[in-house]
Amino acid sequence: MADISVKFCGLEFPNPVMTAAGPGAKDGDLCLEAVKGGAGGIVTKTVSVKPADVPRPCMGNTKSGFLNTELWSEHTIEHWLEVEYKKARQADVPLIIGMGYTADQIEKVAPMVKPYADAVELSTHYVGTDVSPIVNALKVAKKHLDVPVFMKMSPHTDIQTIAKAVEKIGADGLVMINSFGPVMSIDLETGLPIMGSKTGYGWLSGLPIHPLAVRCIYDASKVVDIPIIGVGGVTNGREAAEMFMAGASAVQVCTEAILKGPSIYGKIAQELNDFLDEHGYKDINEIKGLTHKKIDERQFRITSIPPTVDHDKCVKCGICENVCVYDAIAVKDKWEVDKEECFGCGLCVTECPTDALSIPYR
Length: 362
Ligand SMILES: Cc1cc2nc3c(=O)[nH]c(=O)nc-3n(C[C@H](O)[C@H](O)[C@H](O)COP(=O)(O)O)c2cc1C
Hints:
Layout: E1 6-8, E2 11-13, E3 17-19, H1 28-36, E4 42-43, E5 59-62, E6 65-68, H2 77-88, E7 95-99, H3 103-113, E8 119-123, H4 131-144, E9 149-153, H5 159-169, E10 173-176, E11 180-183, E12 186-187, E13 192-193, E14 202-205, H6 210-223, E15 228-231, H7 237-246, E16 250-253, H8 255-260, H9 263-278, H10 290-295, E17 308-309, H11 319-323, E18 329-331, E19 335-337, H12 347-351, E20 357-358
Parallel strand pairs: 3-16, 4-7, 7-8, 8-9, 9-10, 10-15, 15-16
Antiparallel strand pairs: 1-2, 5-6, 6-14, 11-14, 12-13, 17-20, 18-19
Helix pairs in contact: 1-2, 3-4, 4-5, 5-6, 6-7, 7-9
């Protein structure tokens, strides 16, 4: 069995799958449930100086992704201090306290959460995309705290510039990405947005933002040496593995835990373990940043290499033929490709339900 424990910034996680700041960690009981369900670390819902006035409805799942307009915790920070952090502390995994947002707010919040935090996660979501307010909030957090400070980044910022700036000021790690947006979804019966915010806008999370998160992790890990915790559309162990290959040191799960409940953390950790075992990797370090190493070996090409088929796996479903806009595939008695017509686009490979097709990604 592969070793999926991870260690960074002096914190030891039995596995690298944590809760994310969100409904799955909105109070102490849920944090404990998450650990029971297999989470290797807890990140609590973001708290700020005032409880959030959350517009309703504030969550909705659509075919194209999960929308929310939840802001931060609706509990007062005093309530978190008196009740929720005490409960969450009973778990024997690291407790990372989510807090936000501006330097003035962090001046008040950081000393309050300090006694409970193994580390803090400082959300940059509502301080804009400029470097200076983000860096200023971090400076204040570092002034008050002697535990690791992780900066949670939104996807629409200039990731590399901000990543470098916060590393320089002393951020101990990055968390990326927060939900993407604003976005909008409309109820067709009423013509009204499904989110109750004044604008009708919400923020997108879940699987559709996974490739965006992977790209952000990949880009940031090119320019910083501090650990990166990946979050965004992790629904299974393979998506977690992808984040490690892009350069992450751990992952968080928000939307999938809302939809599937706390047992999802352990399930994802187990699937990650299985993935490593199946591929002969002995621990996570063997895949961490793998894409950075591999991409240099890749030969950029503008020529076609047609797919090859594993006839034993091909069930002749015809999906590849349907999606081939070059009319290069025929599935009759057996699967065939017209090598002259094939553009080498790769779509048939990703659409094949039985993994019977392959092309070299080199
Ligand atoms: C309903 C909901 C509430 C959230 N609340 C917070 C929050 O309080 N603080 C924060 O930093 N991120 C918050 N997030 C963002 C998540 O922590 C996470 O970054 C994002 O949803 C992407 O991960 P996912 O695809 O696994 O959900 C929230 C997300 C959702 C869906």
